[in-house]
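Before any further analysis, backbone shapes were mapped to integers, which produced the following:

***
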Amino acid sequence: MCLAHPQVALKVLRVVGARLRRLVGIIEELSFTTVRHRLASFLLRLAQKEGKRSAAGVEITLPASNQELASHIGTVRELVSRNLSRLQAEGMLQIDGRTVTISNLKALKAETDSPE
């Protein structure tokens, strides 16, 4: 198939290469960043993808539970809860149930830019 249709082989290589880059990125993030950094990155991605602007900031809806959120970022529920509380205490977020309003987008972005 690949010899008869070289464009198929090239497409397969592109897809496999993209998946490999994505997996290497995930491994690097899990290995070399803190839970706080991964949580901030997740919140920013969610805000960019699904966020709604409001007077108070950018509103997002978290996954069904902190356990599910922890699974997304490769940690445990307790650390998610603790870090969400800290981000709220520092004035970056306002949490109301599963709705989070990112009130200081710049500060949250700075969390992801800071070297680990």
